[in-house]
C-alpha cells in the first residue's frame, strides 16, 4: 500500500507540473508567434502554424491536470485511462510539431529570401512596403537586402539603417549586416525554439505515461490483494456464524454367530 501511495504522489506531482507546462507553452508560443507576426510580411505564412497548435495544446495540458489529479487520488479507472490516452495523443502531436518546425526551419532561407527580394525591389522603385522595412531594419539592426550598398541608387540612406550607438551629430554610421541574413537567422532561431518546445513537451508526456503505467500496475496488485483479503474475511465470518457441529461416531456393527 505504501508503494501505491508513493506512485499516487508522483502522479499528482506530475499533473501539477503538467499545469505549469501548459502555462509555459501558452506563454512562449504566444511570444514566439508575435515575433513572427512582427515580420510577417517577410516570413513564410506557414511558419506560424506550429505555434498556433502549441498554443492550443497548452490548454489541453490544463484540462489534463484535472484528470491526472482526480484519477489516481480516487482510483477512478475511467479518468486514469482517459488521461493516459490523451497523454499518448499529446506525445505524438507534440513530437510531430517538433518535426514540423524543423522542416519549416529548413525552408526559411529560400522562401524568406524571395519575399525580401520582391519587397525590397518594390520599395526602391515605388516606396511600397516602406513602413515594414523601417520596422525590420530597426528590430534586426540591419540595412538593405544585403547591406547598405543596396541604397546606393538613392541619394540618402534611411534613418532606420543608422547605428545610433556609434553615430553622432557629425557622421552617420550604418548597420553593416544586410536584412536577408539577419531575418533568416532570426526566423530560424524562432523555429528552433518551436521544435524544442515540441520535442521537450513530448518527452515530458512520455515520462507521465511511464509514471501512470507504474501506478496502474501497482493499483491492480493492490486490488487483487484487497479482494483476496475480503474473501478471507468473508470465509472467517461465515465460519464464526455457522461453526461446524461435532462429528457423530458411526453406529456399531453387530455380527451374528
Automatic annotation (TrEMBL):
Classification via InterPro entries: Tetraspanin/Peripherin, Tetraspanin_EC2_sf
Topology term for the membrane: Multi-pass membrane protein
Q: Does the keyword Transmembrane apply?
A: yes
- Record's compositionally biased regions (Pro residues): 243-257
What lineage does UniProt assign to this protein's organism? Eukaryota, Metazoa, Ecdysozoa, Arthropoda, Hexapoda
Source domain of life is: Eukaryota
Compartments annotated for it: namely:
Membrane
Residues spanning the membrane? 12-36, 48-69, 81-103, 190-216
- UniProt organism field: Brassicogethes aeneus
GO CC term (a single one):
membrane
What UniProt keywords are attached to this protein's entry? Membrane, Transmembrane, Transmembrane helix
Q: What is its main location?
A: membrane
Q: Where is this region: Disordered?
A: 236-257
This chain belongs to the protein called Tetraspanin
